[in-house]
Amino acid sequence: MWVFYLISLPLTVCMVISTLRYFAGPEVPATCCSPSDTPGSAPFPSSYSSLPTSGRAVVPLIQGFEDAGDFTMKERLKTSLHVNFIFYVVVGFIGLFGLILIIMMHKNWSGGILGLAMACSNTFGLVTGAFLLGFGLSEIPKSMWTNADQTTRQRVLSHKIAKKAVKLDEAHQELSNAVVVVQATSNHMSKRDPLRPYMNVIDNMLTQMFMEDPSFKPQGGRLGKNDMDYDTDERSMATLRRHLRQAREEYYRYKSEYMAYIMEALELEDTVKSYEHRSSTGWKYISSLRPANAGKIGHLIDAIEFCWRCILRNQLEKLLAIVLGIMSAAILLAEATLLTSGVDLSLFSVLVNSVKKQEALVQVLAFVPLMYMCICPYYSLFKVGMFIFYSLTPRLTSSVNLLMICSMVAQYPPISYNFLNLISLGDNEDTKTIFEKVFQSPGVSSFNTAWIV
């Protein structure tokens, strides 16, 4: 088993660091998120029980701190505490109502507060994880099969580009308004104003933005009725700073996504044209975005790229879509028949139990479907985030959004517990993993069992 940890732990840490480096924006502090914030980096499953009091409790506080527009650490911390206090008061009242219902339904229940907290956390992970898992199980094979058809993919990209262009125009308008408000407020404020140092910080943000992107020109920016009320006190200046930062992040996020779709559409168009004119071009990939490969082996490289982009890639994507579709169907069948007694219809249970005495094969047969089951909800998290209150954009994601996805990822260790039930290793204490023993501890198992399916 130590061999498994020696391989999986460095791999997990490297994947987390790579993901952070890929998505993190240039202004994100390196300490806002760490690999230890995710359950996958824990050395043993039993350490999951410490997550509610460590990473999960700290992340919302750091998130509020990063989102605050105040000018000092003390004020940003106070803002974060205030926002989190309001949030947890509301959640606390809801939890109190739920606790009263539990006491009324289970008069002799004696699981303890810790058991109740773990059960609620696990229930959230299982319920939301089930929805995210279901979306991923259907969407991943379907999108992979659809993208393999180049004609369909071109239509999809055209639709996405049109929608993203509208969003980009709205974000440009919002940022232009924010820039006009900042400039008007700065011009209106005298150099002796007590709030001038705060205004200078906002002016420096604006100056840096124009230096980094000289092509940005505010257009159509206009002042509203209350846009000159930002210079009344320190709190209003913090609001102005936060508004400018959010408008800037939203604009560059939409700009990045728009350009990514444009580049993908151009590359796809080159692929289609190269295939249509393969006889006249000598079966070479011709790109409109870069010159042809030169040198003695340039023709060979272009021919290999043609074979990959125009022939092999689509076929491999279709084959992988079929394999993942079969795996999704097997997982759904196993989930639907989880509580069926007498008949084991779980393909993974049959495979794992058939090689139970060979530890290496057990780990391989368990690793592949478990990895796919973990990828599905995380894929859904990344997709769903584009439509609601957080988003992930390559090299432009703010620390607030990174911390949001970090806290969400930490909610889904119950997916692994669900998989352990799918492979049905038995109720013998000798065959139970540490992970199962933690989840089946007194006061927790009764709540977990109701949400396994």
Can you characterise this structure?
By secondary structure, the protein is mostly helical. Among the domains are: 2-12 and 19-51 and 107-143 and 343-409 and 418-446, no CATH class; 153-276, no CATH class. 69% of the residues lie in helices and 0% in strands. It has helices at residues 2-23, 55-67, 73-105, 112-147, 150-188, 196-212, 234-276, 278-281, 298-336, 347-354, 359-384, 399-409, 414-423, 434-439, 445-449. The longest helix has 43 residues, at 234-276. The radius of gyration is 27 Å and the shape is flat. Mean pLDDT is 79; it is low at 34-53 and 442-453.
Spans where pLDDT lies below 50 across 5 or more residues: 34-53, 442-453
**β-sheet strand percentage:** under 5%
The coarse overall form would be: flat
> How many alpha or pi helices?
15
Mean pLDDT: 79
The SS-based structural class is mainly alpha
- The arrangement of helices and strands along the chain is HHHHHHHHHHHHHHH
- How many strands, what sense, and barrel or not for the largest sheet? none
Rg, please? 27 Å
N-to-C terminal Cα separation, in Å?
Answer: 29 Å
Strands, total number:
0
Percent helix range: 55-70%
